[in-house]
Amino acid sequence: MTSPTAAAPARPRVKQRLGDRVFSASTLTAGTLILATLAAVAAFLLVQGAPAIVADPDSVPILRGESFWSYVAPLAFGTVWAAFLALLMAVPVSVGIALFISHYAPRKLAQTLGYIIDLLAAVPSVVFGLWGANVLAPAVQPVYAWLTEHMGWFPLFAPPVSGTGRTLLTAAIVLAVMVLPVITALCREIFLQTPVLHEEAALALGATRWEMIRMSVLPFGRSGIISASMLGLGRALGETMAVAMVLSASGGISLKVLTSANPGTIAANIALSFPEAFGMNVNALIATGLLLFAITLVINMIARWIIARRKDFSGAN
Q1: Domain segments of the chain: what residues?
Q2: Residue ranges for the chain with pLDDT beneath 50
Q3: Which fold has domain 27-53+64-316?
Q4: DSSP 124-165
Q5: pLDDT digits (tens, 9 = 90+) for 36-76
Q6: Is this entry keyworded ATP-binding (predicted)?
């Protein structure tokens, strides 16, 4: 008779197939490589930028006798301010386009619009920069003059108005056009994943199409919208050539968006200053890149924390 305390027979170990082992090893290698690359970039920026951060301002010509933090503060402000304005304009339009494609447009029209959105995402940034500097800026300058004349009491539209239209608002509009395809494409795919039963249940209870979208689609896609917005924000924060070609930067921190005295951005400043930089100036520019790296990292961490609060939507986790 078998003792009740006898150990249960061990289950035979399932032999893993070669394909499974190769796939598991390749995915582990890819994940490790991403972390190693990120760590290497951070280490490079820290090692190369630290000398300029702690150096005597008089020994770094590009600082012009001021501290590194006084030099980089207007650039950091301009980077975040321009990206915020771009996101403020792009997100509502992107969500509206995505909803139209996924729930309102006929199938053939939706497919055509989807192709156009995907193609816009592939347009080089220098093309947007040329369009913004040569077409958009002259076209919106009369609008800026009207806003300054009739709404100059509002801090953002305070005078004097720029005579060229190459202002921070113009740069933000260009950035909004650039990030709009990315946000739209992701939101469209998220909205299409909404469970059909949820939508049909809302319609069966008497909801209109908009009420169904407001009660079923938007709550389901909230985390996806945040994820898409953060991806668009990442591109807006790091955009270089378009901003450098459109924005007429003069330094300083100002909330005015229609004047010719505009704060620059970190990425555009690096692109414009790096060809003529030498010695400690190169270290100073790399240090500003380190700050941009940190800003992007912090913003993405905050976005991931917001997304993680909704565990029911696995697509964003």
Answers
A1: 27-53+64-316
A2: 1, 313-317
A3: MetI-like fold (1.10.3720)
A4: -HHHHHHHIIIIIHHHHHHHHHHHHHHHTTSGGGPSPPPSS-
A5: 998 999 999 999 888 888 888 877 888 887 888 888 888 89
A6: no
